[in-house]
């Protein structure tokens, strides 16, 4: 069972805040024109908190996270608006050297394709030691590297440390990438599908590792398609569709009462072992009004045109917000909420493996 951290109250929210993202907008230029891949995304991550971004492939989760610290290729990508503050410092206004220092010391990334993050001409140990010697003496770096590999579940770490990336399986490369990310003891770990390329035993070990990080005060921004992983780790969920956040709130509230029709559809499709198969987000997502309206069984005329609906509170739960016109003033969300019970995905109680 996941040990969660209570959401901060209004008075302590500002002092507890580590990452603040406001109205983030990112464009990607393609041969077919410019796509608004991230459109007005806002959220916060508190100290020692795990926030999970969930949604279909193509919904904007990875682009959002890569926009935060300037690691999107420019061109074709371009952050065109919004603000990103890390511990009070603007990341979008930081120069390249400042961003390199922050990424090397205070924020770490784990990417969905770990092989692309590992240099094929250097051993796993060389790459770990390089990351560690920034913060440790050379004599202690190798021993710490071995301990990090053991921590992420690499068998025979004292000998495998001298292997090259091509000698590791995909799952072992993923674990090695996590070890490298943890070498600097970051304040914020941004992890893109860190458990997808491993078997269930290793997945359970990585879940315990990530949970232990937040217990030690590290913040985690996690991208996952696996609702069981979200149930085991998340303090709060952000549900993305069409480059926007359509629903947000504490894990238990969203799992108990998914309020947005897209969240309900996403949860309904989850069988307990997989998500929506290989289905990616629709390419013809509307660019105005509700992005999900073309697939929504509750769509009405007011879903069309204008901006994405603002975030409305779900009932009296101020911490649970949904971007849907049915929750606006003088509207009755009862028909939408009637679908919530059938959409509950997996339990947030019990064993995680």
UniProtKB/TrEMBL annotation:
Topology in membrane? Peripheral membrane protein
What PROSITE patterns is this protein classified in?
A: ABC_TRANSPORTER_1, ABC_TRANSPORTER_2
InterPro entries, alphabetically? AAA+_ATPase, ABC_Ni/Peptide_Import, ABC_transporter-like_ATP-bd, ABC_transporter-like_CS, Oligopep_ABC_C, P-loop_NTPase
EC number(s) stated in the UniProt entry for this protein = 7.2.2.11
State the oligomer form and interacting partners: The complex is composed of two ATP-binding proteins (NikD and NikE), two transmembrane proteins (NikB and NikC) and a solute-binding protein (NikA).
Q: Which PANTHER family match?
A: NICKEL ABC TRANSPORTER, ATP-BINDING PROTEIN, OLIGOPEPTIDE TRANSPORT ATP-BINDING PROTEIN APPD
Protein name, please?
Answer: Nickel import system ATP-binding protein NikD
- Per the UniProt record, the source organism is Natronococcus pandeyae
């Amino acid at each position: 069972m996941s040990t969660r951290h209570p959401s901060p109250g209004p008075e302590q929210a500002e002092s507890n805040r580590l990452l603040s993202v406001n109205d983030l907008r990112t464009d990607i230029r393609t041969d077919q024109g410019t796509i608004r891949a991230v459109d007005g995304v806002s959220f916060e991550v508190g100290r020692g908190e795990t926030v999970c971004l969930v949604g279909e492939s193509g919904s904007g989760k990875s682009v959002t996270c890569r926009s935060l610290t300037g690691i999107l290729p420019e061109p074709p990508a371009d952050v065109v608006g919004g603000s990103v503050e890390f511990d009070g410092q603007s990341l979008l206004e930081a120069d390249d050297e400042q961003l390199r220092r922050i990424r090397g010391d205070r924020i770490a990334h784990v990417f969905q394709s770990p092989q692309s993050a590992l240099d094929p001409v250097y051993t796993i140990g060389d790459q770990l030691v390089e990351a560690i010697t920034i913060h440790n003496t050379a004599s202690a770096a190798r021993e710490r590297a071995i301990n990090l590999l053991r921590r992420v579940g690499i068998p025979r770490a004292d000998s495998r440390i001298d292997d090259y990336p091509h000698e590791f399986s995909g799952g072992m490369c993923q674990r090695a990438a996590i070890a490298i990310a943890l070498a600097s003891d970051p304040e914020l770990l941004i992890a893109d599908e860190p458990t997808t390329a491993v078997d269930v035993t290793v997945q359970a070990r990585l879940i315990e590792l990530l949970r232990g990080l937040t217990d030690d005060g590290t913040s985690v921004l996690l991208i996952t398609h696996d609702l069981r992983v979200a149930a085991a780790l998340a303090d709060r969920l952000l549900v993305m569709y069409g480059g926007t956040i359509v629903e947000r709130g504490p894990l238990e509230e969203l799992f108990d009462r998914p309020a947005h029709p897209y969240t309900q559809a996403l949860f309904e499709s989850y069988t307990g072992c997989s998500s929506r198969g290989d289905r990616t987000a629709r390419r013809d997502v509307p660019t105005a009004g509700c992005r999900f309206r073309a697939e929504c069984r509750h769509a009405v005329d007011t879903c069309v045109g204008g901006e994405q609906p603002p975030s409305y509170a779900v009932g009296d739960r101020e911490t649970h917000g949904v971007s849907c016109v049915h929750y606006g003033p003088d509207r009755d969300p009862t028909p939408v909420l009637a679908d919530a019970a059938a959409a509950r995905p997996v339990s947030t109680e019990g064993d995680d493996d």
